[in-house]
Amino acid sequence: MTHRLAELTTVQAAAAAERDGIVLIPAGAFEQHGPGLPLATDLLRAEGVADLVAERFGGRVVVGPSIPIGVSPHHLAFAGTVSARPATFVALLRDYLESLHPHGFRRFLVITGHAGNNAALETLAQDLLRDLPELEFAWTPITTLAADVVGDLTVSPVHGHSGEAETAQLLHLRPDLVQSDRLRAGTTELDQLEPLPRLSRAGLPKLAVGYHRLSPDGVLGDPRHATAADGKLIIDRATGRIVDFMKEWLDA
Fold it and tell me: What CATH number has the domain spanning 5-251?
């Protein structure tokens, strides 16, 4: 039987809730990913990982409705980008939870392919502890879970958005949507950046700047070095760590 909630009947959904499992919610973004990757890259990665995770649990884990639009104001200088305000993103996700929770679902895990959603997810987590303490809410990015794998790859000193690791993941999950002939290097060295954008890459304290100030084509790194094999290593590591977490969660 399918693990996707959207493909179940209401009777099957009720039965899934009775199994006291976990609802996975993929969250992405609708934003530029350079000249070679699609606008939905972050959502496609989140949905791909959610499906892989759910397959490991039989009927005890279902994949709920995706959130296709993320918090992406830093990409709005690029055509096609659509951004939600953090409050809008949180409100939509909270509506998902407050709709499904009364049916018996009580554990939710958001898999976000977009780092710009992280702050909103943390804010929601704190609100839920106060307002719905009986609901268990977790969230995770993808690439960060495989930081050790990425660290072993050949990546540019400046890398990240639409770079080696992200392109590799999409080459593994959706190679049909990667326009390999259009991939090109973006910003790869700190000395390519002006002072303020360079400061924003220093780590802490945090400084927000638009991606058009970091790279003229929105790319950090050199996606031409990405391979599907590297993408599989990243996705497998992230999937495995989510699965291990969920096994402990279900046993807790």
Answer: 3.40.50.10310
